[in-house]
Amino acid sequence: MGRVPAFADQPQMERLLPSERRKRVRSRVHWPLCLFVNEEEGPIATFTQDLSSGGFYCLTDRPFRVGETLTCLLKVPTYVPDGRYVEQRLECRVRVMRVESLDESGYGIAYRIEDYHFAIVG
What we know:
By secondary structure, the protein is mainly beta. It has one domain: Beta Barrel (Thrombin, subunit H), CATH 2.40.10.220. Helix content is 6%, strand content 51%. It has one helix at 10-16, and strands at 32-36, 44-51, 55-60, 69-79, 85-102, 106-119. The protein has a six-stranded antiparallel β-barrel with strand order 1-2-3-6-5-4. β1 (32-36) and β2 form a beta hairpin. The longest helix has 7 residues, at 10-16. Mean pLDDT is 83; it is low at 4-8.
């Protein structure tokens, strides 16, 4: 009879399987987003490419430094029972985790959400 693999071989099995660096499920959503670098510069408007409960990825024409923190305003679409479209605004403090230089389309940037709250819209 053949040998049955033992659970003791777990470290060897983990080396054979591809590793997934993301800890949370990502959704491919394209929600409007404004990034605020400082008070002197105006907001940078873009859209999320994907989003999870811990962060998001977007494209910009401006590079950022890994580790840099920004404020962003994420416009979250919601729908009420009567069918109206309502937009909630989520204000976040985010940290730049990865910057990818894309050919002619700018930069792809991954952000981790460090803190957030729903902004009150007057």
